[in-house]
């Protein structure tokens, strides 16, 4: 109970009033100050059960927040892994597209080397691979023309300063790794001729290979065209020379013997009609028991069926060190987006 005395006074001129309170006694209980009508029981703190309920609710909320954070982190790592795989694919295949005027847009490791990389390091470092150069005889650019990817930041072991490489533990090399910090695996052609590069994934829903083994990074047709019995070679001869004892050859960088020669034992290309002057037109199929050509812009040559020398427009055989005499050849556009066709024009 509180005693309050109220005094009010006025000065002589009535110009100022003074109001005084005299609180003689107050009762304080917890945070309440003299609130009438409340019992002592109602002014008690939280009971133990109520406190435990509050703690439990806070624990559940905290667990939900942690779970959401973990899921978001895993999703970010997954997206980062998918992005890096797409970059690897692009570095190998190049543009892999056809322009509006029918030109094949090619590039990347496959175009330059005529094969797929056997490790991630081949995309980053030249190592022992040949330097990018122009083969004057076969009119082909080939060799390492990288780096095809920007090197990722070096990883460090938790308690030491030396570089960490999960492949061998201590090798001072920068490897391509996924969103979880683990090396990409595979880098090999499967029995199906598809090319496999994959991540082992992370935890929870992402504890699996990415991409799935049923969906390889690069399908067979995306990097190699199987033209067995399909390659159509059209030859137009504007000269008076008859070409016999010749065959076709596809120049591929670093392939055995410098390319793929057809099994045509002896192709005969007739000369233009002497009386009418009409050029001859012949059509052949590139005979090969198995014709698998790496996609890209390749070169098709007419060569001697015996010794493989290039053929000139006058029918002569071109020596290997002769880079001035123009050979009979044409560009061969190898792609799943284009039909298997080549056109040789002899002038």
Structural write-up:
The chain is α+β, with helices and mostly antiparallel strands. It has 2 domains: 155 residues, no CATH class; 120 residues, Immunoglobulin-like, CATH 2.60.40. Helices cover 17% and strands 27% of the residues. It contains 4 helices and 22 strands. The strands form 9 sheets. Strands 13, 14, 15, 18 and 21 form a 5-stranded antiparallel beta sheet that branches. Strands 16-12-22 form a 3-stranded mixed beta sheet, with no helix packed on it. Strand 3 and strand 4 form a beta hairpin. The chain is elongated, with a radius of gyration of 40 Å. About 10% of the residues have low confidence.
Give the tags.
alpha+beta, 22 strands, elongated, single chain, five-stranded antiparallel sheet, Immunoglobulin-like
């Amino acid at each position: 109970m509180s005693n309050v005395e109220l005094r009010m006074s006025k000065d002589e001129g009535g110009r100022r009033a003074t109001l005084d309170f005299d609180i003689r006694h107050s009762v304080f209980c917890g945070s309440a100050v003299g609130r009438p009508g409340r019992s002592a029981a109602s002014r008690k703190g939280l009971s133990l059960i109520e406190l435990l309920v509050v703690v439990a609710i806070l624990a559940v909320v905290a667990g939900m927040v942690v779970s959401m954070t973990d899921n978001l982190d895993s999703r970010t790592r997954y997206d980062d892994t998918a992005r890096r795989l797409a970059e690897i694919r692009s570095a190998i295949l190049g543009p892999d597209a056809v322009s509006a005027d029918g030109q094949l847009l090619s590039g990347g490791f496959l175009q330059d080397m005529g094969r797929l990389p056997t490790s991630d390091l081949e995309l980053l470092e030249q190592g022992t691979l040949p330097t990018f150069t122009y083969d004057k005889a076969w009119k082909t650019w080939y060799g390492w023309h990288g780096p095809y990817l920007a090197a990722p930041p070096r990883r460090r072991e938790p308690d030491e300063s030396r570089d960490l490489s999960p492949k061998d533990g201590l090798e001072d090399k920068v490897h391509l790794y996924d969103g979880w910090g683990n090396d990409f695996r595979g880098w090999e052609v499967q029995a199906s001729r598809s090319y496999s590069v994959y991540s082992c994934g992370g935890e929870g829903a992402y504890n699996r290979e990415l991409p799935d083994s049923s969906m390889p990074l690069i399908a067979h047709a995306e990097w190699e065209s199987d033209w067995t019995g399909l390659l159509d070679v059209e030859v137009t001869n504007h000269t008076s020379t008859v070409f016999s004892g010749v065959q076709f050859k596809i120049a591929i960088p670093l392939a055995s013997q410098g390319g793929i020669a057809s099994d045509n034992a002896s192709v005969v290309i007739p000369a233009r009609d002497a009386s009418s002057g009409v050029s001859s037109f012949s059509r052949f199929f590139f005979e090969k028991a198995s014709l698998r050509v790496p996609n890209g812009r390749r070169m098709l040559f007419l060569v001697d069926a015996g010794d493989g020398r290039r053929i000139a427009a006058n029918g002569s055989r071109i020596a290997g060190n002769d880079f001035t005499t123009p050979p009979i050849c044409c560009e061969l556009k190898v792609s799943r987006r284009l039909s298997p066709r080549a056109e040789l024009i002899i002038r």
